[in-house]
Amino acid sequence: MPPAARPLSGSAPPRSVEIETLGVRADIVERGVDAAGGVEPPPMSSPDLVGWYGGGPTPGAAGSSVLVGHVDTEREPAVFYALSTLEPGAEVRVERADGAVAEFTVRGVDVVEREEFDAERVYGASGPASGSGQRDAELRLITCGGTFDRERQSYSANVVVSAYLTGTTTSA
């Protein structure tokens, strides 16, 4: 795995996310928290959008930024349908409003049952701190997973991808 890169400064919001190995290229919209206290996903009417938790760090900045997207709709797969198939070493690119592109490397993919969902474990730091003592820039990609319960109309788990910043470029 490549070494962690120095976090970006500034708080330019993210504009799009690209996961080439999955064929994902999606716009990002800012989201808050829902009534249950989780990050509010984009509307079901926009299954190709990804939500960014605006109350947290900007992707590429120090800390753990969170992107959420739907796995499917009633009729078709959605933006993060294949998220659970990502493997360590895969690249995720996030373009920011300041023109910077934060390049992340996937560290791991976990399926977390809803009853076992621990916000600190999921949203907190997953890797070692950089040698400078400064917190690394990390990214969490989250969607539904596990078994679909037709009666409750929900999934039993979440797929959580953990990645860390390994480089930056500028958008063309």
UniProtKB/TrEMBL annotation:
Keyword check for Mitochondrion:
no
Positions the record marks as coiled coil are: none
Stored SUPFAM superfamilies:
Sortase (SSF63817)
Q: Which domain of life is it from?
A: Bacteria
The keyword 4Fe-4S is annotated on this UniProt entry: no
Alphabetized UniProt keyword annotations: Hydrolase
Q: Which GO terms fall under molecular function for this chain's record?
A: hydrolase activity
InterPro entries in the cross-refs? Sortase (IPR005754), Sortase_dom-sf (IPR023365), Sortase_F (IPR042001)
Write the signal peptide boundaries.
Answer: none
> Protein name, please?
Class F sortase
**Which organism is the protein's source?**
Streptomyces hainanensis
Organism lineage reads as: Bacteria, Bacillati, Actinomycetota, Actinomycetes, Kitasatosporales
